[in-house]
Write a structure and sequence with these properties.
CATH topology of the largest domain: Cytochrome Bc1 Complex, Chain D, domain 2
Order of helices and strands: HHEEHHHH
Strand order of the largest sheet: 1-2
Helix content: 40-55%
Oligomer: single chain
Radius of gyration: 28 Å
Largest sheet: 2 strands, antiparallel
Number of helices: 6
Shape: elongated
Strand content: under 5%
Number of strands: 2
Length: 151
């Protein structure tokens, strides 16, 4: 084997050894952190911790954790919509039934949203009822304003 090939092989072996050492170091460090409980506030230990961290509290008709309006269909919307995106994406949009239906079909065609089955009608009714377009006119005229001149 000539020197060029030997150097290449030695370089590859050195790289593999370094990669293994770094990986083992990270694994040992993570094991120590997990065993010491240092990550308890960041990582739930089991499904019970995950369930306890989620609140179902409703205040003034609003689901506290998501900010969504509490009405029939809320839980289906949380279960099906917030798995992929924030509830803010729902609350910041306003569409009629056809608009929400079109959006769901787009997500199914392009974003891998699963078939909602019988739940789709309930979800659409929730969205169209609670997040329909608002009719807004112009703002009210400003009255009793003390105007000043810029100098």
């Amino acid at each position: 084997m000539d020197d060029k090939k030997l150097n290449k092989v030695l370089s590859q072996i050195t790289f593999l050894v370094r990669t293994i050492v770094v990986t083992l170091t990270l694994l040992v460090t993570l094991t120590i952190l997990l065993a010491s409980g240092a990550l308890d506030t960041l990582l739930p230990r089991n499904d019970l911790d995950v369930k306890e961290s989620k609140t179902q509290e409703i205040v003034d008709g609003i689901h506290i954790e998501t900010g969504l309006i509490d009405s029939p269909g809320l839980q289906l919307v949380i279960q099906n919509c917030t798995n992929c995106h924030s509830s803010k994406l729902i609350s910041q949009n306003r569409m009629n039934l056809a608009g929400w239906s079109s959006t769901i079909k787009w997500m199914q065609e392009t974003q891998n949203l699963w078939d909602l089955g019988d739940n789709e009608a309930v979800i659409l009714e929730y969205l169209a009822s609670n997040y329909a377009p608002k009719k807004k006119g112009r703002r009210a005229n400003l009255e009793n304003i003390e105007w000043y001149e810029l100098e």
